[in-house]
Amino acid sequence: MNHTWYVTFEIPSRGTAVRRRRSRSTQTFETETEAKNFARMKFDEGLIVTAGTIIPHLPRRAIASGSILSWLEVEQGSPSGEAAGSTDVQSSK
After folding, report:
1. Rounded to an integer, what distance in angstroms lies between the CA atom of residue 61 and that of residue 50?
2. How far is residue 30's CA from residue 22's CA, in Å, rounded to a whole number?
3. Would the CA dihedral through 19, 39, 64, 45 be positive or negative?
4. Could you tell me which of 43, 58, 39, 52 has the C-alpha nearest to residue 6?
5. Of 49, 63, 72, which is closest to residue 91 (Cα–Cα)?
6. Distance between CA 42 and CA 32 in Å, rounded?
7. What pTM did the predictor assign?
């Protein structure tokens, strides 16, 4: 399998009083569409989600948590399952 996309999400804490470094988990995917579907599911659960391409895959993409919603809303335009346009989605805030 040639996984080129990753989605990282924060694992919710279990209510401990001590503030520790937040745990994260990462899943890898072959296509952007698969990554988006998984990211949408985690985002809908209220988790903090980031995504991007795995190095050395080009073009490199990194989607910050503040830009995830915009990335999820981009229409799937090309037959390869990649989103139309290969530039990073930037937050307008």
Report:
1. 11
2. 27
3. negative
4. 52
5. 63
6. 15
7. 0.69
